[in-house]
Amino acid sequence: MLLEQFLEECERLLEAHLSGKREDNVLPELKRFLSLLDRSELSHFSSLGEYLSKFISYLSRIDEFPHDRKVKRLKNGLEMIAKLRNFFLLHNSEEIESLLGRPVSPSTPIKYAYSVGEARSKILKRMDIETIGDLIQYFPRDYEDRRIIMPISSIVPDRKVSVKGRLLNFSAKKASGYTIISAVVSDGFGQLLLKWFNQDYIIQKLRRDREYLIHGLAKETPFGPMEMNSPEIEEIQGEVPREILPVYSLTSGISMKMMRKIVKRNLGLVRSLDDLVPSSITTERGLLPRKHAFTAIHFPKSLYEIRKARESLAYEEFFLFETTILFRKRQIRKEYQGLQKEISGVLSKRLIESLPFELTKDQVTAFEEIRDDMRAASPMNRLLQGDVGSGKTLVAELAMVDNYEAGYQSALMVPTSVLAMQHYEKIKRELSPIGIETGLLTGSLKKNEQDFVRMRLKKGEIDVVVGTHALIQDGVEFKNLGLVVVDEQHRFGVKQRETLTTKGKLLDSLVMTATPIPRTLALTVYGDLDISTILTLPKGRSPVRTIILARKRLKDLYSYISDELKMGHQAFFIYPLIEESEQVDLKNATDEATKLREEVFPGVGVELLHGRLNDNEKQEIMQRFRSRQSMILVSTTVVEVGIDIPTATVMVIEHPERFGMAQLHQLRGRVGRSNLKSICVMVMNKAISDDALSRLREFASTSSGFDVAELDLRLRGPGEFLGLRQHGMPQFLIGDIVNDRDLLFKAREDAKQLMEEDPELLEHGALRIEMERVYSERARLIEVG
Ligand SMILES: Nc1ncnc2c1ncn2[C@@H]1O[C@H](COP(=O)(O)OP(=O)(O)OP(=O)(O)O)[C@@H](O)[C@H]1O
């Protein structure tokens, strides 16, 4: 085997031992690989041979060592493999030149590319390839390793392999709208069954008795030969070179062979690509220079080179993105002067002293960060994230007190009028004693009431206003707005945030979110914002116990709730539907409320809340629940966000599988908001799928919103997570913010350092040009954010 294959096998072996998958001796296998090694490559480089001997002798006594020393050697062994490979890569980079043809320009329309022309360019356009630049960035979805052609009889199932075989027979069948093409190939010793679904064009490639090269993943079948689904297949003409070839996603009208040829012939483009990442960083991070990475991603010499090329290109994407954000942020700071506020902190101290509890450490830190921002000359642009009930609103309140002391008005914008009312009452209660005038502005107020509030805002008679979307409507003017706080970022788009911030000039803006998002996402979605995080919950809080309960045990739950009610505690019951539906067989809030009120808990006050009630009705219901005139609130998810009832201790969720992870966590966050022990019960139906059940189990095992967010991200991927796609999250071509998160952090760090050393990017012209080209749209959003 070739050196690279030898290294691949060694790596697999050491990793299997390190992870405990293998427990036998290491050395015999290592020796076997060594005996298969084709040493011709070593003869070019004496130092390579020497290093290889060192590697072998380092591992020669490994099986005699105790466990911990063995582990250490395995780890070091893997590092030595990486070094050997890097040595090899450098050697390869000299070969790249020979691969590259004549230079072309990235913006050249695809029809002028080599081997393309008018007709093919139409096909390529269907693959979103409009220019030669797009072509080079059309990355392979997989690779075909032709360095070893396996005998069919030695195929290991579930591993991708290349084999050679003569086509014995083939057939095409149509069944319920599908075309299934089957073929049998043999290499004289073994047979393999090939199958393609709905790939009609394959049939044109098949000729009985011809020899083919086949690449794919073989699966075992209970009877008969192994089977490969949708393999790559190509007729053999002459010698098959030992190489790794790219596999692209294609559309009809273009073959894999042709696509490879087109890419290869136009690869000369990479000559004109300037490095975006400074070479000092590339070297330090062990990444490939751009030219090398682009060449290797299409035509790699080894599997390791593929990995390195991918890593290098993903890093480049992240680096470009992070630099853009930092660069724009700096531009904004330079161009816009903010309100430089004078804050002594006397008033906010008074509020803190009046509270019946102490601030948590994280609340103090977040508050200090906000105050520093408000004192500074540039406008604040900060995200305050913290778990449900961690006390974010209080921090925002303190910031508004500081802002008042500096002589400015503040606005707090929340997503629903019920929440606006709740915040307004709390804020009024706490801020009136220190002389701050508060106001409420929601769409549910009567027109003359709204007019009155608007008039007072304009005159500067209201210092702190709480409201909903009504705050951003035309006709709302402030005398001297200085701080905008937006609660629950996800409910408002960037545009709405923008409208409110332009109400005053160069305002400080604070965004609060109770749905913590993993750090990686925070860096990308909120890359333009500074972030304060409240991790710790107030003293004395214990996590909400989360239980999955079988429906037949509802009686036990009812008796538990009765005991809680006797102690003066309250309960929520959440249903996915307001009323009975003909389409789905789900419990609904209206019928269940009647049942709970009349049969299960008579006489305790059971109220029903849902989205079809008008705002005043909703507020009255909440008011009665808050003052404990009613003890049970039956609701749809309207209570999801922000409702703060410290005496509520039981949250019952019916059909929990209908809700998203973040939503479940928000619902759970409605209890456990004081020192009282609380539980969240998810009632389970028999019909629930295994997947849904395991998702709920995982949810039940978490308690912090940060863990829930990581779990959600892992299960659903970044695109679907919280519907972020609509919120300006950048799409990366090759970088994956979940799997490449470490790379993203590194890029962030490096970009920061680069911006400190060369803030105007004078020494990095190519980076600056590319930045403006790719991210012009995103940069516009950042500017207004
Ligand atoms: N340091 C603290 N110690 C004890 N209680 C606190 C502390 N800070 C806030 N609280 C109380 O905890 C409850 C939740 O606080 P708050 O509403 O500010 O949280 P939040 O993070 O905004 O919650 P949510 O995201 O669910 O809206 C309130 O009743 C508040 O008075």
Automatic annotation (TrEMBL):
The keyword Transferase is annotated on this UniProt entry: no
Swiss-Prot/TrEMBL catalytic activity: ATP + H2O = ADP + phosphate + H(+); Couples ATP hydrolysis with the unwinding of duplex DNA by translocating in the 3'-5' direction
GO biological process: DNA recombination; DNA repair
Keyword flag Cytoplasm: no
Gene Ontology MF terms in the entry: 3'-5' DNA helicase activity; ATP binding; ATP hydrolysis activity; DNA binding
The EC number(s) this enzyme carries: 5.6.2.4
Family: Belongs to the helicase family. RecG subfamily.
Listed name of the protein: ATP-dependent DNA helicase RecG
Species of provenance: Mesotoga prima MesG1.Ag.4.2
Organism lineage: Bacteria, Thermotogati, Thermotogota, Thermotogae, Kosmotogales
